[in-house]
Write a structure and sequence with these properties.
Distance between the termini of chain A: 54 Å
Structural class of chain A: mainly alpha
CATH class of the largest domain in chain A: Mainly Alpha
Pfam family, one (chains A, B): TetR_N
Number of domains of chain A: 2
Oligomer: homodimer
Organism (chains A, B): Fuscibacter oryzae
Protein name (chains A, B): TetR/AcrR family transcriptional regulator
GO molecular function, one term (chains A, B): DNA-binding transcription factor activity
Radius of gyration of chain A: 19 Å
Keywords (chains A, B): DNA-binding, Transcription, Transcription regulation
CATH superfamily of the largest domain in chain A: Tetracycline Repressor, domain 2
DNA sequence: CTATGTATACTGACTAGTGAGTATACATTA
DNA sequence: TAATGTATACTCACTAGTCAGTATACATAG
């Protein structure tokens, strides 16, 4: 039904913006409802709890985030090492935006570290695992080995860059991470250049 | 005076435990005071605000954390690459403990991402920068170049391992990060082995 | 050696406001 | 009329921070 879909989408949209901007613990359900232009009761009609809303927020970002990464990868010129580095370079650009506040998945996981069974934590883990799997496939297809280990190490550099760039408010960490990723690829498979 | 020091230390000790275990946003000042066995008013006698208490919590962890890292580095057998890898291996052990919940500095920075000027965020940035500087020196002394870039990339792997291990509740990410660090060192300076 | 003054370290009760979540009722649409 | 969606108006626990006052120690003045 249209009204439902529309209202639900507006709530989710407001939640995404506020949760990412302020952090899930610093945003009240009232604030989300107000930003969406609905009453709190309406929000609770569409989502049974704040925890569910938080999980839905991350779920909604899962595919778009992945799609953006793969788009950068596909669009980049050169071989796979260059394409991997392109992801870091693009993220460095994004991180320059004043509204950038790190990775929403990582930050939510950090906030909910005391609640490992929280639905949002599971969504976050699934998102990160999905990207690692996708990357391993790309490396494997390109003949870069060991694809799985390499993918994991690149993910580590990526998550580290999210954290360090946020800590120091300096996108240069993404550049250094991208260089490290390229170095690792080249080091394991020097022939591929 | 002894009583003051003692009380202040008890409050700080309670804050460290609770803030790390639950996250700064999920722990009330009342809870810290209760855990320390003092009234809230007494807590506010020693700390002017919760924000100051949070900053003091990280400040108190700065030196001990650094000391633990350097101790692992010093105690490890072999050359600098092996010593670097030892830090990751030791962290993997620590991460197996059920009470382990990632890096307190990173988690606090993530929670306070909306407040870049927060005193605790500054303490976190200083802590991470301090470790990066220390590591660069160790690499430089050992003749491993480029020491600064290498140190930064190893820090990125470290922060990534904190994040990914927390996300997946799997210390294996520390092992993979340690291998990546060793690979990078070997790759830049293959002669050093 | 007493009396008064003052700084330190602390307490219980409180305020003003916010938190998540809900009982009930009114509207729209199928 | 029955289901769906939205609103007003609440509950009650909890939040950071404060008020006004107290016990103790240690000064210095008489």
């Amino acid at each position: 039904m249209k009204p439902q879909t529309d209202t639900r989408a507006r709530i989710l949209n407001a939640a995404e913006k506020l949760f990412y901007a302020e952090g899930i613990g610093r945003v009240s359900v009232d604030a989300v409802a107000a930003a969406a232009g609905v009453t709190k009761r309406t929000l609770y009609y569409h989502f049974t709890s704040k925890d569910e809303l938080i999980a839905a927020y991350l779920e909604a970002r899962d595919q778009p985030n992945l799609a953006r990464m793969t788009a950068w990868f596909v669009a980049a010129e050169g071989g796979v090492p260059a394409k991997v580095q392109a992801i870091f370079d693009e993220l460095a650009k994004v991180a320059r935006h004043p509204k950038w506040k790190g990775c929403g998945f990582l930050r939510t996981t950090a906030e909910l570290a005391a609640l490992p069974g929280h639905p949002a934590v599971k969504v976050g883990a699934r998102h990160k695992a999905g990207f690692e799997t996708w990357l391993a496939e790309q490396l494997d297809v390109a003949g870069l080995t060991p694809a799985k280990l390499l993918a994991r190490q690149i993910i580590l550099l990526l998550d580290g860059a999210f954290s360090a760039s946020l800590t120091h408010r300096d996108p240069a960490y993404f550049i250094a991470a991208g260089q490290a990723a390229a170095t690792l690829v080249a080091c394991y498979a020097p022939k591929m250049k």
